[in-house]
Amino acid sequence: MEKPLNKKIALVTGGSRGIGAAIVRRLAQEGAHVAFTYSSSEKAAKALAKEVGAYGNKAKAYPADAAAPKSLPRLVAKVLSDFGGLDILVNNAGIFMGGKIGEIRAADYERLMRVNVDAVFALTNAAVKVMKAGARIINISSVLGERACGPDMGVYNASKFAVTGFSRSWAKDLGAKGILVNAVQPGPINTELNPETGENADVQKSRTALGRFGRPEEVAAAVVFLAGPDAAYITGATLNVDGGWNA
Ligand code: NAD
Fold first, then answer.
1. Residue of 16, 24, 17 lying closest to 53 (CA atoms)
2. What's the whole-model pTM score?
3. What is the mean pLDDT of each run of 10 residues along the chain (247 residues)?
4. Which residue has the CA at smallest separation from atom 34 of ligand 1?
5. CATH of domain 9-241
6. Which of 38, 55, 156, 233 is catalytic?
């Protein structure tokens, strides 16, 4: 039986670890060719490309710093020349920063916005020029993309509100071209960014209905659903994968 994403060409940012790596694996298992970016962990990225390449599809890791958004249109051109198209874009790369307003360094604010917002804009702005009807854009936002869940998270909150906002607006912009855009809003997911043994882990667990952290694979499952044929009438949606955090 043909796999749901057979021969689709996907690009995932921040694919070498955490949620991004789980997305890369699932897309490849569902039949897609997968290009993904990494910032510093070249060894992990090369190992993952080799691992998923063994599923029988093409896989390639590209160094690309999301903190330098102007470089991202070149990445689209490289993927196009290596893979011959682009059907699925997953904007996953992101960083977290806490801090109280009044105490935040401008340089830290600017870096977070470059990675979490400017890079999503720059890459998508270049990608849509080459994407065709049927293509999918999936933006990894956060439960903090629709609510302020606690103090000292204003900068991250604002960045993820922007990601969710882009998704909804771009769904309206691109519907006529047949390109679907959705946001996935994870709750606490056990990754290096937010380990389930970390200092705020118990508070985060208690905010979910299920009383636990999610796994990267549980976010990847939502992404492959939104990338696949069963989601053909879903655009402009935000899918919470949060154990009931934002219920
Ligand atoms: P992670 O830190 O484990 O992985 C982040 C990925 O982004 C890595 O692959 C990293 O290389 C990449 N990245 C970071 N800075 C980069 C840069 N300058 N250039 C290129 N790539 C860069 O984090 P994660 O938990 O897997 O998070 C993935 C996404 O999910 C992020 O957008 C994050 O905001 C979002 N998210 C995570 C959680 C959570 O609890 N883990 C919750 C909600 C949303």
1. 24
2. 0.98
3. 95 98 98 97 97 95 96 97 98 97 98 98 98 98 96 97 98 98 98 96 98 99 98 98 97
4. 94
5. 3.40.50.720
6. 156
